[in-house]
Structure formats: structure tokens, C-alpha cells
Amino acid sequence: MMRTLVIVPTYNEAENIRPIIARIRAAVPEAHVLIVDDNSPDGTGLISDDLAAADSQVKVLHRPGKSGLGAAYLQGFARAIEQGYDAVVEIDADGSHDPAELPAMLAIVGNESADLVIGSRWVAGGSVINWPWARRAISRTGNRYARAMLRSSIHDLTAGFRAYRTSALLGLDRAVVSSQGYCFQVELAWRIEVAGGVVREHPIAFVERATGQSKMGAGIVAEALIRVTGWGLASWFGRAPAQVSRAADPSSELGA
Ligand SMILES: Nc1nc2c(ncn2[C@@H]2O[C@H](COP(=O)(O)OP(=O)(O)O)[C@@H](O)[C@H]2O)c(=O)[nH]1
Ligand SMILES: [Mg+2]
Hints:
Elements: E1 4-10, H1 17-27, E2 32-37, H2 44-54, E3 58-62, H3 69-82, E4 87-90, H4 102-111, E5 116-120, E6 127-129, H5 133-149, E7 162-165, H6 182-194, E8 199-203, E9 205-207, H7 218-236, H8 241-244
This protein binds guanosine-5'-diphosphate and magnesium ion.
Magnesium ion is lined by residues 92, 94, 96, 209, 214.
């Protein structure tokens, strides 16, 4: 059994945090869980502390304020590396991702030596439930655009439900990965693919959140479009992603 750390980033998920943690614990009882909360004003951090007090396999990382999904995950990854976990999971707190898929996703990491398994909406068998037509079109089109620009073989580059082999995350940190929202996911998957990592897609049904609010807005979509276009053009002219956003301080890299 791979030692697994499931990272759950939260910002204002007070109504969602208890049910998602219960579902994760039931689906993968051996895994450890790390909630990364950005000082949510609605008290998500306090509820998380209660959950951690009642369950030694649940921990909370409190950050001083909202500074983006990417930064929250990078801090969680650093802990997973430090503490020697074999696999790391990314999952939303709002119930959009079904933890019951995790045993299958982790089995692909373990048995097929995948570096990254993406819970994918846009492969055969994948789906999105309760999205209006427009949101579906934006995700579909955005993913097709990113796949073409980056010459990637991945169909759901923006997906936020993932299992990584921890070793695939070595060397990635804030100095290397500089995106915030959806683009963070695109950047990470693409870097692993370009580095020669094995990436697989596992079909999932994504269910839009029932309570609470999405934190992703037009700014985050724009960030993704602009950066993907920039990386695509740069790579067409022969620049590898490592050079696209060069590490400012190599000594600060994860695992260095
Ligand atoms: N720690 C932290 N979590 C965040 C931040 N922004 C979003 N999240 C969490 O990331 C997950 C996905 O965000 P969500 O708003 O549902 O994105 P959407 O599903 O694309 O609309 C949820 O668990 C959020 O609570 C942030 O700045 N910091
Ligand atoms: Mg969501």
C-alpha cells in the first residue's frame, strides 16, 4: 500500500468540509488527509481543527490569508515530500469530486507506475453534472485550446482531481510554478508530461457544488488563456517549460 496524503484546499467551505472529509476517510481509510485553509472568514479552519482533534489521520495547515489554490497545493506538496508520502491526491472540498474514485486512481499510480492520474471529465466515460451550457462550453473549448497550444495528449488539463506519484513533484515550487487557478493545474500536468512522466486519465463524473460559492472567476480564466498562449508560442520556438518560467532561486525548490 502506497502511503498517501490527500490534500483538500479550502476557502469558505464551512458547509462542505465535514461531509467531504467523511467521504474521503471512508473511501481510502489508510490515507492521511491534509486540509489547507487560507484563514477562511466563515470558520472552515475552526471546523477543520475539530475534525483533526477527533481523527489522528486528519491534519490542518493554516495559512494567513487567501493566496490562491496553486500556492495552497504547493505548500501541501512540500509537506508530503518532507514526510515521505509515496502518493499525493488533489481534491476539491465542495463535493464536485467523488472520493470513491480514489482507490482506482491510486491503483493506476501504483500498478501502472503512473506519475499523474487525472480524474477526467473530457474522456470517454467522463461527464459533468449540473453545469449550464456556457460553463461546459468554456471548459471544453479551453481544454481543447490548451491541448493544441501545448501539443499535449491530455484531454482535461484543467481538472483538479488528481493522484500524483510524489517523486513527480520534486523540484516544483513557487519559483517554478507561477500560476494561481485553473492554470496551476494546466502548468503542473504539462510540466510532468514534458519531463517524460507517465500521465493517465481516469474518467469521472464531475458534480457542480450544491452549497457555497465558486472562487474561480473571469480573472482566473483569463490568466489561463494568456499563460497557455504564451507557453505554447514559446515552446513552438523551442523553449522548454523549465525555461518558460525559470526558477528564481533553485535552492528553494521542493526536495532540494
Ligand atoms: N486554500 C485555498 N483553497 C482555495 C482557494 N481558492 C479555491 N480554493 C479551494 O479550491 C477548491 C476548488 O475551488 P472552487 O471555487 O470550487 O473552483 P471551481 O470548482 O472551479 O468553481 C475548493 O475546495 C476551494 O475551497 C484559495 O485561494 N486557497
Ligand atoms: Mg468547485
